[in-house]
Amino acid sequence: MSFEYAPAPESRAVVDIAPSYGLFIDGEFTEAAGGKVFKTVSPANEEVLSEVAQAGSEDVERAVRAARKAFEKWSALPGAERAKYLFRIARLIQERSRELAVLESLDNGKPIRESRDSDLPLVAAHFFYYAGWADKLGHAGYGADPKPLGVAGQVIPWNFPLLMLAWKIAPALACGNTVVLKPAETTPLSALFFADICRQAGLPKGVVNILTGDGSTGAELVAHPDVNKVAFTGSTEVGKAIARTVAGTDKKLTLELGGKAANIVFDDAPIDQAVEGIVNGIFFNQGHVCCAGSRLLVQESVQDELLAALKRRMSTLRVGDPLDKNTDIGAINSAEQLARITELADAGEAEGAERWAPSCELPDAGYWFAPTLFTGVTQAHRIAQEEIFGPVLSVLTFRTPEEAVAKANNTPYGLSAGVWTEKGSRILWMANKLRAGIVWSNTFNKFDPASPFGGYKESGFGREGGRHGLEAYLDV
Amino acid sequence: MPTTVPAYGKEAAGRLASMADVTASDGALRRFLHGLPGVDAVGLQARAATLGTRSIKTTAKAYAIDLAISMIDLTTLEGADTPGKVRALCAKGIHPDPTDRGTPKVAAICVYPDMVATAKEALTGSGIHVASVATAFPAGRAALPVKLADTRDAVAAGADEIDMVIDRGAFLSGRYMTVFEEIKQVKEACRREDGSYAHLKVIFETGELQTYDNVRRVSWLAMLAGADFIKTSTGKVAVNATPPVTLLMLEAVRDFHATTGVQVGVKPAGGIRTTKDAMKYLVMVNETLGDQWLTADWFRFGASSLLNDLLMQRQKLGTGRYSGPDYVTVD
Q1: Residue of A nearest to B251 (CA)
Q2: How far apart are CA B49 and CA A285, in angstroms?
Q3: CB contact at 8 A, A261 and A291
Q4: Which residues form a coiled coil (chain A) (predicted)?
Q5: B57 → closest Cβ in A6, A358, A422
Q6: Beta bridge partners of B163
Q7: Which of A313, A317, B178, B273 shows the greatest Cβ crowding within 10 Å of its Cβ?
Q8: What is the pTM of this model?
Q9: For residue A280, what is the nearest residue in chain B, using CA coordinates?
Q10: Are A467 and A417 within one domain?
């Protein structure tokens, strides 16, 4: 007999999802002017969770106007007063974290283990962190009394719906800006719950506005002439379109786009921990992570040993019901994303890379993709160049540190990188050479509100998090 | 989906023999041990913590509780031990829960060498092993002939398993060959008149070894010297078994098996008191080594108070209600 874990599902009863949601404008939930709605489904079983309003240009106009009006009072508040609201929001997030974690897993498909242990603690931490900055902006290094920009138009992706909201809203409010935020089309629910938290916290009307909708809503928002600051996290393609829209205006812009990070393992690396780091780097959140370590660069001399260990470890990954506390890998967020992952993985095979996946049963309904490994990948393969945004790891090899750096940097992206070695001097040397916004050594996918995050090249510009994250929301 | 380590079978002996090179000299042994992959403390602790969050419920919990009971080395190692106390412990090991005869027996009763004969007699016919801590337990600070005599004594009195402590002083000062030779000689002292051997468990006292790198090195050192089991600690110091240290030893055992084909058991000891803790250890074994190690032959808990918590949880699963400390025996 073997040790089979019985299902340990988290209760859905802790979250009360309404059959339909309106837009959150000027402190009230309202219907879209055009009356259009769309459905949001659970990617794990395709169940319709709720219906949300599709914001049109009239709604964008209303929301920006509300934010503009609220800006006068909000920006005039002493920093310590704004901090009070942010602290209150942070505490409410902590109090409601179980509910929010379940909601996030339902709407996004990510395992409850991650929404509970990674997303929600970080969401609260971001609000706490920036609450602490609100009355200390004069000490941030951007002048004695830096001013806010005005109305921030923010568009966020579906991979970390609530966390990306926190990354955008917390620094914006701390600096005295007001916000119109558009969550992703497939994961709008947690932002709407956040709107409720803003009301619960007594946040003045119009300071935070939430517009649900698709790409067209986002395009309307970033193009609106009365938006002073645009912040976007998402695909490089959309980021380029936004940059074109904003070009020539006086809007400030930050973009956090795609990535194709190298996770570099030297022959003297702590092998067991490197394997964990590789798994965490690419299979965390089903690989729906812009800074995912999707290219494994392994030194030839330890290739066999490392790959054997990696395959063994991948065989223990549990794929399935996101609400089961023992699930390691949940559902792919949407049918479109699944199609893209499938297409790229097939291209990898067609171009001659060797495909491997552990045997695992995938559920019938919903969108699923088994954790997958490609060996024999070269720089010329599409799977080594294009962002897959799914649980697919490409393995390349190198022989010398110089070659590792050259291959790691040989990509249009530059968001993150990982270095695994027991040699401290080599870590520092690599960190200097790698063109990536963040370099993790002997770890991967570690986040902290105090640590700035952002990219080079096609991974975007500007930094979120830390003291650096304030700059994007201040007139400096 | 538990992993299973491939069995190497026939090749095993050859592979182990080819490892003889690394123990040929002090220098070779040092180079080999220091050439093992390093351990990143943060990563190791994070992995152990993640494994600790597996949620074990209902059928899995029932299975794990019975498995844990069957893996216990029920232990009394006190200066105040009496034959009566040892007999009581043996009785408890045979029938851990007098109200439910379906409760599994424990794996072994662990006592000081002078109590082996008493325990052996009390356990006659039960199939439960007698384990004995020899080699000047717990400090290990005695001359080698004394340690060997201690071991032979325990084996002669009928001990099925010997838990030896290593000379931590020698290990920390880098005299690896001294430790290696000592383990080999103790193993030889485990030989019975009929040519069979008592099982040898080698205790590292990982709390005194301080670094994770040391734990990996000492694990390989003991396995190369012929340990049947590697064991974290004596239970007599401030820091005993911890999940990261145990995970690291499981990984060493896994790698040793992959290299030589020789299967070695693991025994965390000291400080494991609750069912919840025990579940975490079983999950670690399951996801690091797989089914093949999930038996009392290859995994043990060194514990004295864990059993009662397991019994209370077992009663809770059976009745749906918590009973309390008065519904389990105090022996």
Answers
A1: A272
A2: 18
A3: yes
A4: none
A5: A6
A6: B133, B201
A7: A313
A8: 0.95
A9: B47
A10: no
Q: What pLDDT, on the 0 to 100 scale, is given for residue B7?
A: 37
Mean of pLDDT values over A175-192: 98
Per the structure, the complete domain to which residue A386 belongs is given by: 262-441
A111 CA: distance to closest CA in chain B (Å): 13
Asked if the model's pLDDT at residue A212 lies above 50, the reply is yes
Residues A353, A226 share a domain = no
Q: Indicate whether A120 and A184 sit together in one domain.
A: yes
Residues A381-437 have pLDDT tens digits of 999 999 999 999 999 999 999 999 999 999 999 999 999 999 999 999 999 999 999
What's the number of domains chain A is made of?
2
Residues of A in contact with B46 (CB under 8 A): 276
Query: CB–CB of B38 and A6 under 8 A?
Result: no
Domain for residue A9, yes or no?
Answer: no
- d(CA B44, nearest CA chain A) in Å: 6
Would you say residue B6 has pLDDT above 70?
no
Tokens of A121: 């603690």
Q: Which of A141, A212, A144 is nearest to A180 (CA)?
A: A212
A240/A319 same-domain check:
no
Q: Does one domain contain both A243 and A312?
A: no
Domain with residue A308: its CATH number is: 3.40.309.10
Which among B92, B105, B187, B231 is annotated as catalytic?
B231
Contacts of B47 in chain A (CB under 8 A): 272-273, 276
- If asked whether residues A217 and A343 sit together in one domain, one would say no
Q: For the sheet containing A37-41, what is the strand order? A: A20-21, A48-53, A37-41
Shared domain for A221 and A336, answered yes or no, is no
Which DSSP letter does residue A455 get?
Answer: -
* Candidates A2, A3, A298, partner chain B, best to mutate (most B CBs within 10 A): A3
Query: What residues of A are labeled active site?
Result: 256
Q: Which amino acid makes up residue A264?
A: I
Set of chain A residues whose Cβ sits within 8 Å of the Cβ of B282: 3
Task: Name the pairing type of β-strands A178-182 and A151-155.
Answer: parallel
Min Cα distance B63 → chain A (Å) is 7
Active site residue B92: no
B231 is an active site residue: yes
Closest to B270 in 3D by CA, of B246, B249, B294: B246
Instruction: Nearest chain B residue to A423 by CA: give it.
Output: B38
Q: How far apart are the first and last CA of chain A?
A: 66
- Is residue A296 one of the residues assigned to a domain? yes
Domain CATH code at residue A181: 3.40.605.10
On whether both A37 and A62 belong to a single domain, the answer is: yes
To the question of domain B10-320 being in CATH 3.20.20.70, the answer is yes
Partner B contacted by A36 (CB < 8 A): no
Residue B3 pLDDT grade (very low, low, confident, very high; cuts 50, 70, 90): very low
